[in-house]
Amino acid sequence: MTYDVCIVGTGAGASGVAHKLVEAGMNVVMLERGGFYKEEDFSKDEIAYCKREIVTPSFEDAYHTIESLRNGKWTKKSTRDTESTYFNGNIVGGSSNFMSGYFHRMKPKDFKLKSTYGPIEGANVIDWVSDYNEFEPYFEEVERLVGVSGEITHFKYHEPRSTKNFPYPALDEHPISTKIDDACKKLGYVPYKTPRAILSKAKGERSDCYYSNYCGSYGCSSGAKGSSRASLLQPMLKKKNFNIITHAFVKKLIEQKGKVVEALYVDTKTKEEKNVQAKLFIVAGQAVESSRLLLNSKSKTFPNGLANNTGQVGKNLLFSGGGIGSGQFDENSMALKELMKEGLFVNRSLCDWYFYEEDGKEVKGGIVDFLFEHANPMTKATKQRFENGKVLWGKELQDKIYHKLNKTKQLNFEIFNDWLPTDNCFVSVDEKYKDAYGVPVANIRTGAHERDVEVGRFLAKKAENVLKEMGAKDINSSISSAPPPNLQAGGCRFGDDPKTSVLNKYCQAHEVGNLFVTDGSFMPTGGSVTYTWTIYANSFRVGDYIVQNQKVWL
Amino acid sequence: MPSRKTITRRVFIASAVLAGTALALLPQGAKTAIKIDLFKTLEAVQEVLFPRGLAAPSAIEFGATAYLANVSTHSSFLASDLRFLKHGAQELMNEYNNFLTLNPQEQDETLREFVNEHEVGENWVSFVLYFTIEALLSDPIYGGNKNESGWRWLNHKAGLPQPKVPYAQNLKGEVI
Prior knowledge:
heterodimer; A: 554 residues; alpha+beta; FAD/NAD(P)-binding domain; 7-stranded mixed beta sheet; 6-stranded antiparallel beta sheet; 13 helices; 23 strands; B: 176 residues; mainly alpha
């Protein structure tokens, strides 16, 4: 049979568009590399989810090669050797199952960085071909359908909203949040209440949050977290015009006469090669893997990869600038009983420096999110086995572990600022490096612009000031140009000019009329926020466009 | 994941030694001198690293070695990690072939010497400790944390739901 639409991937970028097309009656199939976990399959198993990363492909199956700058030379290393992974959750719903769900909207100026702030030397900053006004209704739709909880904090850079409040009230907060508020007030900072993609009230089949204390890195057992699986895909499973094929690793899209006609995939359980025919194809496998698929889909018409005759596929890949920091709290700062309360959220951010002044001129900044160190006891305890760089054991170690887990709490902050697009951050493929299925793996060059670190350091100081004011001990921060592998965007920019972009305004490939890319790949710049909200919103936006124009393809 | 993922799959070496992987620490063509029983050696070492305390269970009591014997057979346990565990145990026994017959205090002193003087000493001990702590605090279905002794000692409340099957399989024990 020939489907109307075949979607590669099942994460946020794949599912927004799937939702729109299925609702409009189109016959849709999704191809997912991994399996289908439902609420009852998830548990708080630190070994499975955090230590052995069961939900990412094994290194035998798949890997990446990473190029980083060492002594002035780009040096390539396989993740098989570094044992770090750039896969972020290969199951139905993708990495949205495992996110923490810190949801900030992009700001209007984020859509026009170049015309607002001018060019930055060494960076390929451009304006988006869309604007905040076009995205706003879709940000709002995400709030309702995926579910965003919180309370509006007014501050000078707040983006315009078409609705007054979030559809779900704020989640319950830990007593430390009040301490952050007090510290911010003393410092003249605005304590911004962090919106979360977590339900504080039940919605349909999804239960409300049960404050398990193990949220980020874990699948949600109540359906409260706004994964694309719980919020968009599971509610559609009974529909006859919707189908998800699991354990389907797509090797190649087959092109004929300028159109994609078939997705060639391997069933990772049986190792059999299979295919799916459709009239319209949508790629959304997370930025790195989406570019890889296009680059590996070579044909006579597209010798350098599908939709890549101008050589733009894989270029201007984005991660997120910034870094992390922390401070320690104990009974001196707060009654131990209060401090050690589990499961409640911190939900505070600093957004005052989303834009800030430098040398009399406004520049682009970013945000700070506060959160407790994850509850994972193994991760906390194993870190205790060194003291001044020396390994520790016996009673000394036992006392240290006991103290860490019973008498202290670590408040972390995470900084997010723009990862400027540059010529040194891209995805490519190389026939020399192949995965278990004979497909070239993605090579990722991870160069960062020096400005990213400067902005990150500026923001870290503000976060440190809050921790100091709160009386935290051992305050430190680590800002670097190391890419966070889970925050990916770019690689298939959208734009009006086919020479400098892969996709048009609606994320349709300039060179291939029945091909769309709807994960974070389209973003020329990503904003100083985690990308999931933007990805969901854009996916809904593209979905509406396809539904309105469906006659073109069907 | 934290919204910013910084922790890679494996972090087991002193941060000062950014060697990265166990594989990188394995010398080429390491020679084997005496035949050792890996898990007997590990059991003795783990009991020194994690002895019984006033409230703390000892490594043997919470099943540290049983845990390793179990998890090291699963496909998710990196082959290079197992090789490094074996390599260090072999080096220890090559240097101190009477290690298993020493009393606990002598074993402790021997391990400190091994850490100070042998090139793999510190990394190997920190590596064994890494898995000892996994055994202390992982769900008992993996063979460690016997009778939840690790959790009870540390007043730890397990996250709910606890796993009913290991390695995120389905309830029938199949890979999802």
